Fold this sequence. Notes:
Chain A is mainly alpha-helical.
Amino acid sequence: MGSKERRERQKESLRQEILDAARDLFVNEGYENVSMRRIAEKIEYSPTTIYLYFQDKSELLFNICEETFARLSSRLEEITRGDEPIQCLKKGLNAYVEFGLQYPNHYRVTFINHPTHGIDKERYMHEGSMGMNAYSHLRLGVERCVQAGLFRVTDIDLISQSMWAAVHGVTAILITKPHFPWVDKEKMISLVIDNIIEGLMA
Amino acid sequence: MGSKERRERQKESLRQEILDAARDLFVNEGYENVSMRRIAEKIEYSPTTIYLYFQDKSELLFNICEETFARLSSRLEEITRGDEPIQCLKKGLNAYVEFGLQYPNHYRVTFINHPTHGIDKERYMHEGSMGMNAYSHLRLGVERCVQAGLFRVTDIDLISQSMWAAVHGVTAILITKPHFPWVDKEKMISLVIDNIIEGLMA
DNA sequence: GTAGTATGCTTAACAGCGTTAAGTGAATTC
DNA sequence: GAATTCACTTAACGCTGTTAAGCATACTAC
């Protein structure tokens, strides 16, 4: 009796269809500018159908973000496999920024926008989430530099967090202020990364 | 015939009342979580009355932010009047972060949240705005360091922008991710600022 | 002093939002 | 063939920012 499995497959396929439609709209128009009704229209179902597959709008987004940040995570993993720890770290930080600029709406939602008074403050960036996964790659890169005795500071988490803050700053500000008269985006990214690492080296 | 002036004063006073109510709500609960109806309730007028004094919700916020960032600007001005250019710069950057953490909702709205597809992308941070004013103070501090020959890079705007990006990063991430297990917020702020300046010095 | 107008505010409504309760028609089970 | 389950829809709730229209009060002019 394969009918049960067939129906299972159909359900899964609609679930994916919803996710695809939502991703497309979120990425191109931004989370806040996309309504459940518009997603429903795109897949040609009624709005309420979505709620049979996802708890609410934010869960849609969460799934899409985890998926995207899994890609960042594996990208970072490749990079940090290199030999020279300082160069790896630089490349990793650079990849982080480039990734954010490549998926500004994902980045916006995951790292820039409101936890405000919401419940799901800890939905993203908790133990085991893809965002945390990416952070742990950065941490590993820092650890290697510290263990090689390359830095004047030795608190690995302190360093990692300050680096994250700095690269987040470049990424976020370039995304949220695209009309500011930036001298040269690439130069600025490099300068931030170089300075923060240069400043750490003895 | 002072009646016209009296009415003028009354209008101005209600305008302020609206602004005060809106500021209080925005700062304590966040822009997105406050409705026009709630502001109206607080001042005991009908919601539509607000529209006789302000074009829309975003204009309310804009006025409040300009007001707040004027304070940041003057705070920075005091600081950057000091003698030792590097110390001034450090203090200025520190003051920037502290200010952001002191008024997280103002900061959020002005520097963190969506321009998305809106019209008023250039409402904040344009020539003559208080945000830009604050930036120009930072720029002045950098200029003094460059002219004193203290930095290995000499492009003043490039340096200023990379510094802004870095301190924005710390500020923003501490505001938006308050539940992340930060090692020590103050230490992280210091490390970012120290590193970025250390990295620039020859 | 009264008619006419301008001012300041309110009531009612529009079009949209996320979300839920109730209902419907077809497929599956017994 | 009847009962039940399943996938989905229709209608609605309560909220949002915002606008159009209306209604008193205060001011102006004759």
